[in-house]
Amino acid sequence: MSATQSASLRHRVAWLLAALVMLGLLAIVFRQPLADRLWPEARAQRLREAAAQALAHDKLTAADGSGARELYEAALALDPDRDEARVGLQRVALAALAQARRATQAQRFEDAHRALQLARDLAVPRAEADAVAETLRKREAEVAGIDGLLAQAAAARKAGRLDGDGTAALPLYRRVLALQPNRTEALEGREDALSELLQRAAGLIEQKQLAEAAALVARAREYDPGHVDLPDMQAQLARAADARRTQGQRFLRRGRLDAAAAAYRDVLAVATDDADAQSGLERVAQAYGQRAERYAADFRFADAERVLRQAREIAPQSPALVEAERSLAQARQHQRQLHIPANSAQRARRVRQLLAAAAAAETRGDLLAPPGESAYDHLRAARALAPNDPAVRRASARLLPAAKTCFEDELRGNRLVRAQACLDVRLQLEGDTASARDARRRLASRWIAVGDERLGAGELDVAKRAHAAAQALDPKTPGLAALAERLRAAAPADD
Fold it and tell me: Which residue among 119, 270, 397, 473 is least packed, with the fewest CB closer than 10 Å?
């Protein structure tokens, strides 16, 4: 052998040794034979062997993956074309059924239930699983002491503890019936207890506590949806909900917003999809927003924030809240610009100056404009400084008729934007009275008429703005929904 050939041989041997060392290092680092990566069948075979060993030791399942079920399933995932893992899973199912039988005889009922569930999960023959389940149920009933449970249930019912924790009558009857579904004493006891529970619901309905009554009726339905008294009680609830809905409408008209919200919530406790109650809550939120605007106009920021919180709880997405929050922010800025005097004498002097300026602006006819110099702007500043001052109250009372006249004049002339400005002042001074609500609806109707006219002329954007103005004033105005439908029909397909 030449020197050149000898050197080449040594070079090849060195490379071979290096490759072997690298393979050894890889095996150590990854802690898995390289063959497992190259031939998954080898890994699947080892999993099947480990599964068989776990099955032999009666370790059928384990959360860490070392149970026979998990090992066979892993082998099947690696090598789905071989039947050994499927056969192994069938053996696990039969072993689980045997475990359930043994645990039942040993009165280890929780273990029996777990083993039976494993057998069902692995598709053991249903007839065999049902037979084990029936034996388990009977054995549980024998050990549980059915007579004792019935006595406890009767005592709980006599004490008035019909529902609640596991020691109340209805849960005890349910437990007995789970073990012995045809036990007469339990069926009759449950029937009587449910009748008493529904009588309590009837009492709550009479007391106008519909949410609580609805909860009891729902519980009764869970125990026995076919109870003989349920249809009548559900009908009573529906009638009571109708009455509360009417009450909510009346409270809202009278400005009793808290009472209106409570009434509408009661209706929704009975019927969660009641459209009228949902709409009523929206109107309550809108009324809260308008009230917040009036408070903000008088710089009563704490009151404004309070009613805004109430509105957000009812309808956090209401457009009226956006407008009210904007008004509140503007009022805060306006108050900062006023530089309210800290000295009471200076404040009183400033109030007199503002009232004089308001009277002068009113004489000039500057009821709403120019901004910052109108009669209303001066009066609002005076109200912020001294809301309870008799002179301020008299000025407010004097300005209210002017605001009403302004609104009627502008509405008559179909100058709707100016009419809206006059109405805003009127609402601040008058509040949410019946006549103010009538004015809102009349202005909303005019906006609807404008929307119809502009839509007919093909001016879709103007019609949309008219609809939005009417919606903000009174979402229940007749014709508003029809205009909205026509706008949707007229909108381009990609709008």
Answer: 397
pLDDT score recorded for residue 167: 78
Name the token pair of 237: 């609830």
Q: pTM for the full model?
A: 0.45
Q: pLDDT, tens digit, for every residue of 431-468? A: 778 888 889 899 999 999 998 998 888 888 888 888 88
Three-state secondary structure string covering the chain: CCHHHHHHHHHHHHHHHHHHHHHHHHHHHHCCCHHHHHCHHHHHHHHHHHHHHHHHCCCCCCCCCCCHHHHHHHHHHHCCCCCHHHHHHHHHHHHHHHHHHHHHHCCCHHHHHHHHHHHHHCCCCHHHHHHHHHHHHHHHHHHHCHHHHHHHHHHHHHCCCCCCCCCCHHHHHHHHHHHCCCCHHHHHHHHHHHHHHHHHHHHHHHCCCHHHHHHHHHHHHHHCCCCCCHHHHHHHHHHHHHHHHHHHHHHHHCCCHHHHHHHHHHHHHHCCCCHHHHHHHHHHHHHHHHHHHHHHHCCCHHHHHHHHHHHHHHCCCCHHHHHHHHHHHHHHHHHHHHCCCCCHHHHHHHHHHHHHHHHHHHHHCCCCCCCCCCHHHHHHHHHHHCCCCHHHHHHHHHHHHHHHHHHHHHHHCCCHHHHHHHHHHHHHHHCCCHHHHHHHHHHHHHHHHHHHHHHHCCCHHHHHHHHHHHHHHCCCCCCHHHHHHHHHHHCCCCC
